[in-house]
Amino acid sequence: MRLEIEVPEERIGAIVGKEGENKRKIEEKCQCKISIVKNVVIVDCLDSLALMKVKNVVTAIARGFSAEISMKLIDHEDLIFESIDLSQILPEKALQRILGRIIGKEGIMRKQIEDMLNVHLSIYEKFVSIIGEFESVMVAREAINMLINGAQHSTVVKFIERKRRELKSGF
Fold first, then answer.
1. CA-based diameter of the chain, in Å?
2. Residues 92 and 159 in one domain
3. Is the pLDDT reported for residue 122 higher than 80?
4. Which of 103, 115, 132, 167 has most Cβ atoms within 10 angstroms of its Cβ?
5. What is the pLDDT of residue 167?
6. In this structure, are residues 33 and 25 in contact, taking their beta carbons and an 8 Å threshold?
């Protein structure tokens, strides 16, 4: 099976890694062959599950995550990758303002979401991406949607706290 993934040119180096180390690790862990032509990553795998893992890892790196964090998607079955393309839901002129709301003053909102939900966030170009366990990623996505829709930071933090308690108690 073959998959082609378009990647921003400036992220190709992060996918390849120093002396090809990242590319080699992905190929070994997933038993796939990766080749790169300009800004397109071509993945050949025999196994469809491995192909999806490589797609998630490559896309996560392309969306601003480090290779180290992205490769957790291979090693940890309980982690998922989610990406929100803000250009699909926001007008161009609102993009920077909303990205700023998600990051928060001095990155505080982003850090709170990451710390409270034990997820990794990447804000890169027009994308907000999340890596974490399914339930936590769903709560983070909902919190991000609240910020997009204008909710106050304090309201979002209270929402996350409530959801976190629910997750811990098993609801």
1. 49
2. yes
3. yes
4. 132
5. 85
6. no
